[in-house]
Amino acid sequence: MKAAQQAARAINPERFPLYLYKSILRLHYGLPAQARLMGDTYVKDEFKRHKTAKPEFVKPFITEWTNYCVMLSKQLSSAGIRKGNIGKDLDSDKMEQLSNEHIQQLVELRVEADKHMGRDDFLQNLQNVTESREKPI
């Protein structure tokens, strides 16, 4: 009976966000130090913000973070060593669904990521695109 209770607790859907959170942080051990620090900070902040979110926001939140967890686990070896590139680009369908606030958050995240990784090409490309949109055709 005790094993059955433990199994029931293990698959408790109310605890799934905690398991997901811990799994993501565990996977981040395989990332470079700067990416791990930034990723851990971002994950902790996002999960704290969604702790008291309305149910209609929780399901997509959990779905997207589960997808991230699965993708990252496929990109890391069992020893936690990077295999090729980490992450993937957002597809255009998902980008169109994002609010302006979320797009701004993504831009800020990308700029911070590039700073931590010693790159500034994204910010430079963003400035070029912004300037070209402002010029009359």
UniProtKB/TrEMBL annotation:
InterPro entries in the cross-refs: SDHAF3/Sdh7
Subcellular location(s) per record: Mitochondrion matrix
GO CC term (a single one): mitochondrial intermembrane space
Keywords, alphabetical: Chaperone, Mitochondrion, Transit peptide
Single biological process term from Gene Ontology: mitochondrial respiratory chain complex II assembly
Family: Belongs to the complex I LYR family. SDHAF3 subfamily.
Biological function: Plays an essential role in the assembly of succinate dehydrogenase (SDH), an enzyme complex (also referred to as respiratory complex II) that is a component of both the tricarboxylic acid (TCA) cycle and the mitochondrial electron transport chain, and which couples the oxidation of succinate to fumarate with the reduction of ubiquinone (coenzyme Q) to ubiquinol. Promotes maturation of the iron-sulfur protein subunit of the SDH catalytic dimer, protecting it from the deleterious effects of oxidants. May act together with SDHAF1.
Quaternary structure annotation from Swiss-Prot or TrEMBL: Interacts with the iron-sulfur protein subunit within the SDH catalytic dimer.
Protein name per Swiss-Prot or TrEMBL: Succinate dehydrogenase assembly factor 3
